[in-house]
Amino acid sequence: MKTVDPRPAGLSCRGSTRLVSEARDRPLTDAEAQGLATHIRDCPQCQVASRQFADLFALLEQVFARGADAHS
Amino acid sequence: MDIEVMATPPLDDITAQILGDQIAEHRDFLLRVARLQLSREEDALDVVQETLAGALASAGRFSGTIPLRAWLIGILRHKIIDAIRKRARYVQLDPDDELNPGESEFDRHFQADDCWRPEAVAHGSCPQGVAVHKQLLGVVEFCVAKLPVNTGRVFLMREFLDMDFDEIATELKLTPGNLRVLLYRARMRLRDCVSRGWGELHENR
């Protein structure tokens, strides 16, 4: 593992999309999770985008029937 | 006593026939999923055949508490993972497909300071409701199928087969950085494609 990514104190929208993606593959560090939450709270566009990602991931789980509540 | 025995009857011929027909109805979907994952058509056909045969052989264990498709996909998932592990040398990335690990294709979504351009998130969120639900699942399937071959394969190894990030990197001889970018690109492209799709669903209502 490489050392902690020195992300700028203020996360950009682009940086926050990277974290949203990486959160699917590994647990975010506390600092990353905190930075992401703060950015999303203050950024209307990222609120929309993160909602879209969440909807996308939920639909993917249904398409691939990941859960017992998947469609038949 | 008799009633208890009857509560779990052996699968009779008629039930087996009905279940067999239902299982066959899902074959096309299973094949589409397998093709996305396995580069060789014969491998895709093999795993689907094994899945259907396995499902029929163990039909008595299908409890009906989860949807039939979910049960079949669970079997398919294991068959594909087996195929990938057994025939690792066949699961190669396609050198003709894009492998450039950059993310410049998303530059148009962001302004100079890396903030979203408003139009990039213009389609709002996913429409709700039973009526559009099936269409939404179709949109997602379409968008996954539209991913470039390598991007789609890597994405499904992670999101569908649930293989570990490090195992995928090792299996495909990718650096963690390249794998991270490939997965990022897949998710960004899917968000684009799917949100455009549900934008249309909003308009058509």
Descriptive notes:
The complex is a heterodimer of chains A (72) and B (205). Chain A is an all-alpha fold. Chain A contains 3 helices and no strands. In chain A, helix 1 packs across helix 2 (30-42), helix 1 runs parallel beside helix 3 and helix 2 (30-42) packs across helix 3. Chain A is globular and about 35 Å long. Chain B is mostly helical and 205 residues long. Chain B is built from 9 helices and no strands. In chain B, helix 4 (41-57) crosses helix 5. The relative contact order of chain B is 0.11. Chains A and B meet through helix 1 and helix 3 of A and helix 5, helix 6 and helix 9 of B.
Summarize the entry for a quick read.
Chain A is mostly helical and 72 residues long. Chain A has helices at residues 13-22, 30-42, 44-63. The A-B interface holds A 12-15, 17-18, 20-22, 24-26, 43, 45-46, 48-49, 51-53, 55-56, 59-60, 62-65, 67-68, 70-72 and B 33, 65-70, 73-74, 106, 110, 113-116, 118, 120-121, 123-126, 133-134, 136-137, 140-141, 144, 158-160, 165, 180, 183-184, 187-188, 190-191, 194-195.
Topology:
The complex is a heterodimer of chains A (72) and B (205).
Chain A: H1 13-22, H2 30-42, H3 44-63
Helix pairs in contact in A: 1-2, 1-3, 2-3
Chain B: H1 2-7, H2 13-25, H3 27-37, H4 41-57, H5 68-86, H6 130-146, H7 149-159, H8 165-172, H9 176-203
